[in-house]
Amino acid sequence: MPFDKKEYMKEYRQTPKGKKYNTIKNWKSRGLISDYEKIYQRYLNTTNCDLCNIELCQGNKGSNRKCMEHNHITGEFRNVVCHSCNINKSDMKKQSNNKSGYKNIYYDKEWVYKKTFKGKTITIRRKNKIDILCIKFAAIILYRY
């Protein structure tokens, strides 16, 4: 029987190692920076919100699901919290939809840099936050806006 990579990957994602890999990959894409091994163990072992002490549920739905609360400017991890506490943090209110901490850059399934220059809107999408930051700062240097 030939090797089916798609089926293998589907099975791998259900293993503890596959779940860990995907979770850490997701954190990185959302800008979380830290010791991923240490944080992953803390994430697995946390049963209550670090801020309001409500019991956290497993899964991706509900106001008491686990969230990785971090500084949206530096990416530094702070706490494992419930969704309610995570959306009520003050640094999110200041930045609205901007999870990067930089003006005109936000995350929507991938990193986006959107800027209007001389009446034209430029939108650039990349999977890596660093790529978007480089593009933004190169544009600042080249066009001085």
Task: Give an overview of the whole structure.
- With 145 residues, the protein is α+β, with helices and mostly antiparallel strands.
- It contains six helices and five strands, in the order αααββααβββα.
- It has a three-stranded antiparallel beta sheet with strand order 3-4-5, with helices on one face. A two-stranded antiparallel sheet has the order 1-2.
- Strand 4 and strand 5 (120-126) form a beta hairpin.
Q: In angstroms, what is the radius of gyration?
A: 18 Å
Count of extended strands: 5
Compressed to H and E, one letter per element, the order equals HHHEEHHEEEH
* Largest sheet data: 3 strands, antiparallel
Q: What distance separates the N and C termini?
A: 59 Å
Uncertain stretches = 90-97
Number of helices: 6
What is the topology, as strand order, of the major beta sheet?
3-4-5
- Output the CATH topology of the largest domain: His-Me finger endonuclease fold
Structural class: alpha+beta
SSE blueprint and pairings:
Blueprint: H1 5-12, H2 16-29, H3 36-45, E1 66-70, E2 77-82, H4 83-87, H5 90-95, E3 105-107, E4 111-117, E5 120-126, H6 129-143
Antiparallel strand pairs: 1-2, 3-4, 4-5
List key phrases describing it.
single chain; 145 residues; alpha+beta; His-Me finger endonuclease fold; 2 domains; two-stranded antiparallel sheet; 19% strand; globular
Summarize this entry quickly.
This protein is α+β, with helices and mostly antiparallel strands.
